[in-house]
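Quick one from the shared queue. A colleague (R.T.) flagged Enoyl-CoA hydratase/isomerase domain-containing protein as missing a structural entry in our internal table.

Convert sequence to structure tokens.
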Amino acid sequence: MGGPGRAGPACDASEAHDAGDGSRTDRHASVSASADLLERLRSIVLPLGRTWTDAAPLAHVRATLDRHFSAIDVPGIVASLASDAQTPWAVDTLALLQQRSPLSLCVTDRQLAKGRRLDLADAFRMELVLGYHAFASGDFVEGVRALLIDKDKQPRWRYATLDEVPQAQVEAFFVSPWPQGEHPLKALGDH
């Protein structure tokens, strides 16, 4: 006959048995094998989780991180970090943020706020829209140029400072480029 699905719709073992294909299914053996596999997976995965938890790289700066990143917006975060010159983590984080695209920082801040309210399917749809606009805006390509192509590490961002980034430009990143109902991930999450 060919294998499942070759001559028509695919079916599971119990449907094949009910259709009289001549083979037998042993539900007890199947459940037992599944339980064994699950136990082996647990023995591999659970220790990894413990390792990750034990080695949480930000645990020692969590209070500092929470204090600075609880600011209302990116300029507030930057100002908070700038006021904490005695904390090495704050100094390093500020230096890192100052290297990044101001537009991307503002979009990411908005994304985090908006994403908290989304289910997984809507979050993936939002990510695709943001990715589309990230390429279209030019800052992603400019970052690649500065870091990987010319290697001058001197990106010329679309907006040089956070103050120059228009809120309307940030909001435009969340507008789908596809017509209503035509998002490539529109069926994601449908049952």
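Residues 1-8 have pLDDT under 50 and may be disordered.
The chain has nine helices and no strands.
Added to the table.
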